[in-house]
Amino acid sequence: MNWTTLVDATALAAALDHPDLRLVDARFVMLNAAPDAGRTAYTDAHLPGAVYADLNLDLSDLSKVGEGRHPLPDRDAFARRLREWGIGPSHQVVVYDAGDGSMAAARLWWLLRLLGHARVAVLDGGLAAWLAAEGAITSLVPVRPPVAPYPSRFDARHCVDAGDILERLSEDSGWLIDARAAERFRGEVEPIDPVAGHIPGALNRPFARNLRDGRFKPADELNGELSALLRGRSPADAVLMCGSGVTACHLLLAFEHAGLHGARVYPGSWSGWIGDPSRPVARGE
């Protein structure tokens, strides 16, 4: 096993009993659901051996102010959680959610990459694809012996903050890409955040465009589509954002799957940007 972006259900099923494999269920429902809807779904049924990661409790630190709706978790707290899940640097980790990876499998994939963990992948198509392939499910919650605390720290070079964005606002477009739905980007609707619109100069690439029938498009197809957005820039020059730093990770996964390496994420994203009313806001295309 050496999966670093995506893995399909068939390949995962063949490796399900491998001692180095660690599975994490990251199902989360953002709107119109109880806060623990994902955990409840996990309790009802999940892949054998999978532990549960909660977007709000495990993959974010909601006590941080001014960093958006899903600030990065405290590194030490996250490392402790990895220890409790039995995950160490040598393990092959596979993360899944209900379907396309956006809520919130790609977020955990990215957090592990920030620690330098290379062997982490998202189950393409998530639980839906697993069930379609007649994969086994269970309600048994695994008990794994804790491992040594994860030794690394988040690599800040893979993130940007609002100050970095402000410094680049005068640049030609093609470097800042927003993964939110088009109507939210244009400012026509805003179901979550108090201000509608987008950062001036940003381009819109709704994360759903990376998918076909709930799974990621082929790598060469995504390469062509995403390269066109860059307008001749290097992928390493790109900054990816969304509403709160969650679906931006899904867009990053698409870039990496497409062979376009090195893009960075703005964790605060739109919800962090509008935390300061002096920052500019654009609406429309």
What's the multimeric state? Answer: single chain
Structural class: alpha/beta
Q: What is the end-to-end distance?
A: 43 Å
The CATH superfamily of the largest domain is identified as: Rhodanese-like domain
Shape: globular
Which whole number gives the mean pLDDT?
Answer: 96
Question: What is the helix/strand order?
Answer: EHEHEHEHEHHEHEEEHEHEH
Report on this model:
- With 285 residues, the chain is of the alpha/beta class.
- It folds into 2 domains: 6-154, Oxidized Rhodanese, domain 1; 159-273, Oxidized Rhodanese, domain 1.
- 28% of the residues lie in helices and 11% in strands.
- The protein contains 10 helices and 11 strands.
- The chain has helices at residues 9-14, 37-44, 75-84, 105-114, 126-132, 162-167, 182-185, 219-230, 247-257, 269-273, and strands at 6-7, 21-25, 51-52, 92-96, 120-123, 176-178, 203-204, 211-212, 215-216, 239-241, 264-265.
- The protein has a 5-stranded parallel sheet with strand order 1-5-4-2-3.
- Strand 4, helix 4 (105-114) and strand 5 form a beta-alpha-beta unit.
- The protein starts with 5 loop residues before the first strand and ends in a 12-residue tail after the last helix.
- The model has no long low-confidence stretch (mean pLDDT 96).
